[in-house]
Design a protein that fits this description.
The complex is a heterotrimer of chains A (285), B (314) and C (459).
Chain A: H1 8-36, H2 40-45, H3 60-66, H4 76-107, H5 113-123, H6 128-141, H7 148-173, H8 177-184, H9 189-218, H10 221-227, H11 236-245, H12 250-284
Chain B: H1 12-46, H2 68-74, H3 77-107, H4 115-122, H5 124-127, H6 130-141, H7 147-154, E1 170-172, E2 175-177, H8 179-204, H9 209-217, H10 222-233, H11 235-251, H12 254-260, H13 269-278, H14 283-313
Antiparallel strand pairs in B: 1-2
Helix pairs in contact in B: 1-14, 2-14, 3-8, 3-11, 6-12, 8-11, 8-12, 9-10, 11-14, 13-14
Chain C: H1 2-26, E1 40-44, H2 49-66, E2 70-74, H3 77-90, E3 96-99, H4 104-108, H5 114-124, H6 131-136, E4 138-139, E5 142-143, E6 146-158, H7 159-164, H8 173-187, E7 190-193, H9 201-211, E8 219-220, E9 223-224, H10 229-243, H11 252-260, E10 264-270, H12 273-277, H13 297-301, E11 302-305, E12 317-323, H14 330-340, H15 345-349, E13 357-358, H16 369-375, H17 386-390, H18 392-401, H19 415-423, H20 431-435, H21 440-458
Parallel strand pairs in C: 1-2, 1-3, 7-10
Antiparallel strand pairs in C: 3-12, 4-5, 6-10, 6-11, 6-12, 6-13, 8-9
The chains are: A mainly alpha (285), B mainly alpha (314), C alpha+beta (459).
Chain lengths: 285, 314, 459
């Protein structure tokens, strides 16, 4: 970073931008968290008073949101478990598939790989909504509609292009001399990938995995199309969106929103550096 | 770029091909199965004249090929309306997301105490699941109990609360603002600018300090250093973001649907396709709308590639 | 060039795959379509847990009687639209769907088995059904579904507040608007609480409900009529009503909570409010100042206008109808529907009697059997029925009120246009202009222009 002096005006401008951004970025989120701690009636009566009084703070909205419908709650706990299964399944499958694919495109000169790359980029030009009907027909023939497995397959296909791209950039950035040596020593290709490439590329893989997790955790459209009939399989985003339609008090919806956010934020705090460097490597290429 | 260099019954090239195909097979399989095959079916649906109930009996031999779906779409005002909305949405979010991210990244360039924490907090809207973001915004903007309207009516003296998410045109004096559309655009900027911020910050860290120092010694002031040294370094990353952002915004469904369900003049193409599909049960029409989206994006992508190639050649 | 050839062959490959896909779709007529009495699937929009349990009980009784098993699936109306589309595409449809009468899209796409529905109606006796309800689901001269039950809008008013302000019970829309304005000015509280939020479904409902009171029509015989003098008059009154709010624009929820808080004199809502007024709904508690001492405050101090203007008896409302989709297990489905409209009828209506007024009032032996039973059904988990709380007169007038159920376009060739106009909140989008003082005639002309262009789009 340059050691140049700045005028006070520039300094002030920087400070103002940072403060404003700060308020805009976390203001709404704080607002949501605070409201979720207040009784709904209090929110209705005085929308401006967003900081709950000490005696007013209540986690009732959370417990009601999480309890299953049988216990008089909104069943969000179950939806979260579904989301977790789905996201973890997607990450594992997608990473496995794309490590192999990314290694191939980064390291092996096989004819036709540029076509493959082009197809995968072009895939992003196809709007997801339109694919829904044929995809549904296809998966129902395989008996996979209304199951989490069907959705995992869809999510894998949705995430593979990005994760291929991210991982390929990692692999290209890594020195290949060790791999070459290992291959000459008689290691099989899978052995090389498993024992040599994976350990070195672990930070990149973790960053990619996190990104995949966020995509799968967030996804709403396909969950809506594929799972709407199976209430017991609803994901957290689908569950909250559905509850919005049925007169659910806003404090419950906000409590649910906070709860779906927590896992991602934790993960993100944990892996922030990885993600930044991961994305940055992607951006350089 | 290397590959295995050792003796084998297969030739090197054959071996490389085999390995390459085997390793990338799962990726292509997933993409082919879930995206390419359905897409081909979409093309067929778009050019076929059929009722939904007949899909089961459809075979290539019996398809009644027709341009009716396109003729109907292209001659309808809703199509062009949705297209206009989508383009406006994509253009303004792209500009806002990239502009916002770059400005904040530049402001955050110099180290200051607590920078890491501040940077992490900036990323919160991006990390926040869409459903959480939309729920919070819907609450905040609610005419009855939302903070913004309460603030407006009680503190700023608005006469009535504003139904931000459902008002198509809001009159300020003689100027009409597309209210709901503006809100969904702002939401997208709020949510996605941190993504640009991440990219740009990473790139800025790689701008060599010597360049700027040298320019300063040559008498360049802060603004000149910014426009002549720093910004040109961002060109590549901004171009990549431009492509990605435009494509994503153009197809965005979740954020808009979860905020407004297409009300208040926010019916973008993706929402329109969804409604053709679910409300009208018209698969052919939905497919035609979707194909048009794809064509537009392809044109944009090709244009982007051409512009970039020319610039790079210079 | 090498690359080009490869792209060509890749595209060729995927196309072949797509054809294979299309081809193998051809033979698919499996599933539960063919069997005579396999298990059947029933989609119901009554998704609340206690209602689900009640419906499952009826289904079990049906199974006991016929040996046909029934899977009851909870699915809200909008989700049914979407799930039937994906289901029909993959050949996996439910056997019976309880759905609102907006069936034109399904009918156009061939998803509805109107022969099966007609057979049930004829078997039960077309004359045992509410004629208006049958008319609504008659598209292209054929019954598309079998009417079950429905609700209508009521104008609820506070007798004490009207008395205090010296107001008569209004008998026309003009009078209602004047009364609401007077309340706002004299009492300082909301005159009329109803859905007024620009561009929302809440307001779309309110517009249709209020506009019909002057005899205003959206469209008749293919001609858009929303710019008529009646509609302009209604629009003017609508603006006055909306302006009588002391709390800005309402959606249905906030309108209800305002009335239950004692802060409104008039309140437009469906019959579902009947249990809520009595404090029988935990989700919508009574919050008014007087309610603390007197739980029956609203029952004692509320009265209902079922038909506002005798010259234009048109009650906004909706009906629920049993749809038998194409490809369903027809015979078993028909048996099930017949059971639900006879032996299982009272229990079914009992899941929420306040919102489910029977559209088959009786049978050949006793023409009012089911309506009478309905009047005694306890509401909201209590032991009080509509008859107990509000008197037999209301039961009768609600039963008759169903004859005035009226929705723009339903049951005519204009149903598609009306349905789209409703679904897209076309009219409610114009409320903004109306509220900001634009001449009502101008507003309805603008509405007409939008409806017209929608009609052109629909072709």
């Amino acid at each position: 970073m340059s050691s140049l002096r700045e005028s006070n005006g520039v300094k002030a401008l920087r400070a103002v931008i940072i403060v404003i951004t700060m308020v805009l970025a976390i203001g709404p989120v704080l607002y949501g968290v605070l409201l979720s701690l207040r009784p709904f009636a209090a929110v209705l009566n005085d929308p401006l008073d967003i900081v709950p009084a000490i005696g007013e703070i209540s986690f009732e909205a959370y417990s009601q949101a999480m309890r299953s419908a049988a216990d008089g709650g909104y069943g969000l706990g179950g939806f979260l478990v579904n989301s977790l299964i789905l996201a973890v399944g997607t990450v594992l499958a997608s990473i496995l598939v794309s490590i192999l694919g990314a290694y191939a495109t980064a390291r092996i000169r096989f004819s036709g790989r540029s076509v493959g790359n082009a197809i995968i980029v072009a895939v992003y030009m196809f709007p997801g909504v339109v694919l829904a009907v044929p995809l549904f027909v296809l998966l129902s023939r395989a008996g996979l509609t209304g199951t989490l497995v069907g959705l995992v397959i869809v999510y894998v296909a949705l995430t593979v292009p990005v994760s291929l791209y991210m991982l390929r950039n990692y692999f290209i950035a890594l020195p290949s001399s060790i791999e070459d040596a290992a291959l000459i020593d008689g290691c099989s290709l899978m052995g090389v990938i498993w024992r040599i490439v994976l350990p070195i590329a672990l930070p990149g893989i973790a960053a990619t995995a996190m990104y995949m997790f966020m995509i799968a955790w967030n996804e709403y459209l396909y969950a809506l199309l594929f799972l709407v009939q199976e209430r017991s399989l609803w994901t957290a985003p689908l569950g909250i969106a559905q509850l919005t339609e049925f007169d659910t008090p806003v404090t419950i919806l906000l409590a649910g929103s906070v709860v779906v956010t927590v896992p991602v934020v934790l993960l993100f705090m944990f892996a922030q550096r990885l993600l930044i460097s991961g994305l940055a490597t992607g951006a350089e290429k | 770029m290397t590959r295995a260099a050792r003796g084998s019954r297969l030739s090197r090239g054959q071996r490389a091909n085999l390995h390459g195909y085997l390793l990338s097979a799962p990726s292509y399989l997933a993409v082919t199965l879930v995206i390419l095959i359905p897409f081909c079916a979409v093309v067929i649906f778009a050019f076929a004249d059929f009722r939904l109930i007949d899909i089961q009996q459809m075979t290539l031999g019996t398809i009644d090929w027709s341009l009716a779906n396109f003729a109907k779409a292209l001659s309808s005002g809703t199509f062009w309306g949705a297209l206009g909305t989508t383009v406006a949405y994509a253009v303004f979010t792209t500009i806002g997301v990239i502009g916002g991210g770059v400005v904040v990244a530049l402001a955050m360039r110099r180290p200051f105490p607590g920078q890491t924490v501040v940077r992490a907090l900036f990323l919160v809207p991006y990390v926040l699941p869409v459903i959480a973001g939309t729920t919070i915004w819907r609450t905040m903007l609610n005419p009855q109990y939302g903070f913004l309207n309460a603030f407006g009516t009680q503190v700023l003296g608005w006469e009535t609360p504003i139904a931000f998410l459902t008002t198509k045109t809001f009159q300020v004096g003689s100027v009409g603002i597309p209210m709901a559309l503006t809100v969904v655009i702002l939401f997208e900027i709020w949510k996605s600018a941190p993504f640009t911020f991440l990219f740009v910050t990473a790139r800025l860290q790689n701008v060599p300090a010597e360049l700027e120092d040298a320019a300063a010694i040559d008498g360049a002031n802060a603004r000149q250093r910014l426009t002549h040294i720093v910004l040109p370094q961002l060109r590549t990353v901004v171009m990549v973001l431009l492509l990605l952002r435009f494509i994503w915004s153009f197809q965005n469904f979740n954020d808009i649907y979860l905020l407004t369900q297409g009300a208040g003049g926010t019916e973008v193409m993706a929402v329109k396709v969804f409604k053709e599909l679910t409300v009208r049960a018209d698969v052919g029409s939905a497919a035609a709308y979707g194909l048009c989206m794809t064509v537009i994006l392809l044109v944009f992508g090709i244009g982007w590639a051409l512009v970039n190639r020319r610039k790079e050649a210079m | 060039m090498q690359v080009n050839r490869r792209i060509t062959s890749a595209v060729g490959l995927t196309l072949t795959a797509a054809l294979a896909l299309a081809a193998c779709s051809g033979g698919g007529d499996d599933g539960d379509g063919g069997e005579a009495s396999g298990p059947i699937t029933f989609w119901t929009p009554h998704v609340q847990p206690e209602r689900m349990a009640a419906q499952q009980d009826i289904a079990d009784e049906f199974t006991e009687e016929t040996g046909i098993e029934v899977e009851v699936v909870a699915m809200a109306g909008a989700d049914q639209d979407q799930a039937l589309v994906t289901g029909a595409a993959s050949g996996d449809v439910p056997d019976v769907v309880l759905h609102a009468p907006d069936l034109s899209a399904w009918q156009t796409q061939g998803l509805v088995d109107s022969d099966a529905a007609t057979a049930v109606i004829e078997n039960l006796g077309a004359d045992t059904f509410n004629a208006q309800a049958l008319d609504i689901i008659n598209i292209d001269g054929a019954y598309q579904a079998i009417p079950s039950d429905g609700w209508v809008h009521l104008i609820v008013y506070r007798t004490d507040l009207l008395e205090e302000a010296g107001l008569e019970v209004p008998t026309s829309l003009d009078e209602l608007a004047d009364a609401a304005e007077t309340i706002r000015q004299e009492e300082g509280i909301t005159g009329m609480a109803m859905g007024t939020q620009v561009g929302t479904p809440s307001a779309t409902e309110a517009v249709e409900s209020i506009f019909q009171q002057t005899g205003c029509q959206l469209v008749t015989d293919g001609t858009v009529q929303i710019d008529s003098a009646e509609c302009a008059q209604a629009a003017g009154d609508f603006a006055t009503l909306a302006d009588s709010s002391a709390a800005g624009q309402f959606d249905v929820d906030s309108a209800r909570s305002t009335y239950l808080d004692g802060k409104a004199a008039f309140f437009l809502f469906s019959t579902h409010v009947l249990d809520e007024l009595a404090g029988l709904d935990d989700d919508n508690p009574l919050t008014c100042a007087e309610c603390g001492d007197n739980e029956d405050f609203f029952v004692e101090n509320s009265d209902f206008i079922t038909v506002l203007d005798e010259n234009n008896p048109a009650q906004y409302g909706t009906t629920l109808n049993y749809v038998i989709p194409t490809g369903a297990n027809t015979e078993a489905a028909q048996q099930f529907v017949e059971y639900m409209l006879s032996d299982g009828y009272a229990t079914m209506l009992g899941t929420a009697p306040e919102g489910r007024i029977p559209l088959r009032p009786g049978n050949a032996d006793d023409p009012t059997q089911y309506l009478d039973e309905w009047g005694t059904l306890p509401m909201g988990g209590s032991d009080q029925s509509v008859g107990d709380l509000y008197g037999e007169d209301l039961v009768t007038s609600l039963g008759e009120g169903m004859n005035a159920v009226s929705r723009w376009g339903f049951g005519t060739d204009d149903a598609v246009l009306a349905g789209e106009t409703f679904a897209q909140n076309v009219l409610a989008e114009h409320l903004d202009a109306l509220y900001s003082g634009t001449d009502p005639q101008q507003v309805v002309s603008d509405m007409a222009a939008d409806v017209q262009s929608l009609q052109d789009d629909l072709g």
